[in-house]
């Protein structure tokens, strides 16, 4: 498995835990299409990289993304920076640079899409 594939799998784990607080190990492993043993290794790796994932009646991530300037250190920009650092530290330089360029190009549209989904959900 390539480093990029492993990192992509770990980002799917972060996304699943963020979307479904309290997700059980077996379900999370199934979502990520991995064994529970691999899940534990990935979670340990993510914790070492600064993700505050804990188990309390299911996996939870202790990371809300306040968007206001008063909480900038814990905000969306902070999460973005953490993920870029992870990409840079785990992938070959050329691939990391390519991912960063594409992320910068696609992030505004992805965020706009998310805002639209949330607005539609709460009409």
TrEMBL record:
Source taxon at top rank: Bacteria
Keyword field: DNA-binding, Transcription, Transcription regulation
Gene Ontology MF annotations: DNA binding; DNA-binding transcription factor activity
InterPro entries referenced in this protein's UniProt entry, alphabetically: DeoR_HTH, Tscrpt_reg_HTH_DeoR_CS, WH-like_DNA-bd_sf, WH_DNA-bd_sf
Gene3D superfamilies given in the database record: Winged helix-like DNA-binding domain superfamily/Winged helix DNA-binding domain (1.10.10.10)
Signal peptide feature range: none
Sequence ranges assigned to domain HTH deoR-type in this UniProt record: 6-61
Keyword Ubl conjugation carried by entry: no
Protein name: DeoR family transcriptional regulator
Organism expressing this protein natively: Candidatus Dormiibacter inghamiae
UniProt lineage: Bacteria, Bacillati, Candidatus Dormiibacterota, Candidatus Dormibacteria, Candidatus Dormibacterales
